[in-house]
Design brief:
The chain is of the alpha/beta class. The protein has 18 helices and twelve strands. The strands form three sheets. Strands 4-11-10-9-8-7-6-5 form an eight-stranded parallel sheet. A two-stranded antiparallel sheet has the order 1-12. It has a two-stranded antiparallel sheet with strand order 2-3.
Length: 423
C-alpha cells in the first residue's frame, strides 16, 4: 500500500534527522551508479546497454528533457487521486512494471522480489518471456494483484500456444506482444564482453518449465548430434556444469553426460524469435487467446492505425529502451503523433527513457494512458531486492503525485497537452 507523497517525504527527512539515510537513491543517476557498483560487470552491461553507439537511449532522454511542464495555480489540489481504469481494471496509479528478462543478473530470484513488490502496490507486473522463474511461481506470490504476460513470438506456434495457455491459467489479464525483437540488436557492451546470458540458461524460466519446450528438446536429442565445439576449454567445461545444474529433471550426472543443457540452449536459440512475424500473425493471435492483446514497439502512426485494423486492444509506444535500433526516434517523440492518429480508439502506454514521476506526468500529458518503468526497478532490485523496489515505486508515485498537484491537477484525468510546452 502506497504512502502519500507528503508522508513519504516526512519519513525520509525524519529518518535523516536520526542519521538514517535512504538506501534507494531518489534520483536515477545516483541509483544507476550505486547499482553499477553492486552488480557484476557483465550483468550491469546487459541491463544498462543499448544498441550501437546508444544514440537511441540518448534520444529517449533528450526528447523528455526538451518538453517543459507548465504549472497552473490556485486549483485547490488538497485532494489528489492517481487512480486510472485500464482494460476494465481499476489501478491505483498509471504505472506498470515493464517486462525485463534475466532479473537474476540483479539479484537471485529477482522475479519473485519484483512480483511481491508489485502486488504490495497493486501495480501490474508484466511477466517477461525471458524471466528467470516460471510465471506460475510469480503468480502464486501475487494473490489477486494484476499481472500481464509478455510474448516473444517464437518459431514454434505450439510453444506460443503453450505460453499463452499458461498465462491465462495463472491469472494474467492481458497479453503484451513485443514486436521489435524479431532479431537481437547490435549491442556493443555485450559483444565486447562476449556475453549473452541465455547461453548460460539464464532467463529461460518460462522455457525450462514448459512441456512443449521440453518435448522439442527431447526430439532434438533423439535425432540430432550437437556440432563440434571446436575444442574443450576450462571455461566451456564450467559453463556446461552450470547448464546441467540449471536444467530440470533427472540426475546431474545424466544431464551432464547427455549434454541436455546444451541441447536446451541450442533449441532455445533456434526457436527464440521469428523474423518472419507479420500482421497476418497478429490477426490469428485471437485464435490462440482470449486475453486483451497489446502490441509493444509501435512508433509509426501508420502502424498504430494498422493495429486498430487487425483488432488489437492497445499499444505500447516503445523502442525497447534503445536496445534494438541505434539512432531510432525516441519513444516520447513518437507518442504525440501516434496519439493523434488513433484519436482515443485504443489505450496507449509508453516506455523507454522513463526515469521519474515527472517523466510519467509528461507522458500522460502527451497522450499516454499509463507508462511502464524498466531499468530503474532493476537497479533497485540489485540494491535492495523486494524492499528496494518498494522504495523505488514509492519514490515514483510520490514524485508523480507532487508533480500533478503542484501543476494544478487533482486527478490523472486532468493532465492534458495544455500543461506542457516544447523547449
Amino acid at each position: 500500500m502506497r504512502t502519500s507523497a507528503v508522508e513519504w517525504m516526512r519519513q525520509i527527512y525524519t529518518n535523516g534527522f536520526k542519521g538514517k539515510m535512504i538506501s534507494i537513491p531518489a534520483d536515477f543517476d545516483s541509483l544507476e551508479k550505486a547499482a553499477r557498483e553492486r552488480m557484476s560487470e557483465k550483468g550491469f552491461a546487459y541491463v544498462a546497454g543499448g544498441a550501437g553507439a546508444e544514440q537511441t537511449m540518448m534520444n529517449n532522454r533528450r526528447a523528455l528533457d526538451e518538453v517543459r511542464i507548465l504549472p497552473r495555480m490556485l486549483k485547490d489540489v488538497s485532494q489528489r487521486d492517481l487512480s486510472i481504469k485500464l482494460f476494465d481494471q481499476q489501478l491505483p496509479a498509471p504505472i506498470l512494471l515493464a517486462p525485463i528478462g534475466v532479473l537474476d543478473l540483479a539479484i537471485k530470484k529477482g522475479d519473485l522480489h519484483l512480483a511481491r513488490a508489485a502486488s504490495e502496490f497493486g501495480l501490474p507486473m508484466i511477466f517477461s518471456n525471458q524471466a528467470s522463474m516460471p510465471m506460475e511461481t510469480c503468480a502464486n506470490e501475487m494473490g489477486d494483484s494484476p499481472r500481464w504476460f509478455q510474448l516473444y513470438w517464437s518459431k514454434s506456434d505450439k510453444l506460443v500456444q503453450s505460453f499463452l495457455q499458461r498465462a491465462e491459467n495463472c491469472g494474467c489479464s492481458a497479453l503484451v506482444v513485443t514486436l521489435d525483437t524479431t532479431m537481437l540488436g547490435w549491442r556493443p557492451r555485450d559483444l565486447n564482453l562476449g556475453y549473452l546470458p541465455f547461453l548460460y540458461a539464464k532467463g529461460l524460466g518460462q522455457y525450462l518449465s514448459d512441456p512443449v519446450f521440453q518435448k522439442l528438446v527431447e526430439e532434438r536429442m533423439e535425432h540430432e548430434d550437437l556440432p563440434p565445439s571446436g575444442g574443450v576449454t576450462l571455461q566451456a567445461l564450467v559453463s556446461l556444469i552450470r547448464l546441467s545444474s540449471k536444467y530440470p529433471g533427472s540426475s546431474f550426472w545424466q544431464k551432464f553426460k547427455s549434454k541436455k543443457g546444451l541441447y536446451g540452449v541450442r533449441t532455445f536459440t533456434d526457436t527464440y524469435v521469428r523474423p518472419s512475424l507479420n500482421w497476418e500473425d497478429i490477426k490469428r493471435l485471437k485464435e490462440y487467446t482470449k486475453l486483451p492483446i497489446i502490441l509493444k514497439g509501435i512508433l509509426h502512426p501508420d502502424d498504430a492505425l494498422r493495429a486498430i485494423d487487425v483488432g488489437v486492444d492497445g499499444i505500447i509506444v516503445s523502442n525497447h529502451g534503445g536496445r534494438q535500433v541505434d539512432g531510432s526516434i525516441a519513444a516520447f517523440e513518437a507518442l504525440p503523433n501516434v496519439a493523434e492518429a488513433i484519436k482515443g480508439q485504443l489505450p496507449i502506454l509508453m516506455d523507454s527513457g522513463i526515469r521519474s514521476g515527472a517523466d510519467i506526468f509528461k507522458a500522460l500529458a502527451m497522450g499516454a494512458d499509463a507508462a511502464c518503468i524498466g531499468r530503474p526497478y532493476v537497479y533497485a532490485l540489485a540494491l535492495g531486492g523486494e524492499a528496494g523496489v518498494k522504495a523505488l515505486l514509492q519514490h515514483f508515485l510520490s514524485e508523480l503525485e507532487l508533480t500533478m498537484g503542484l501543476s494544478g491537477c487533482r486527478s490523472i484525468q486532468e493532465i492534458n497537452s495544455e500543461m506542457i510546452k516544447n523547449k
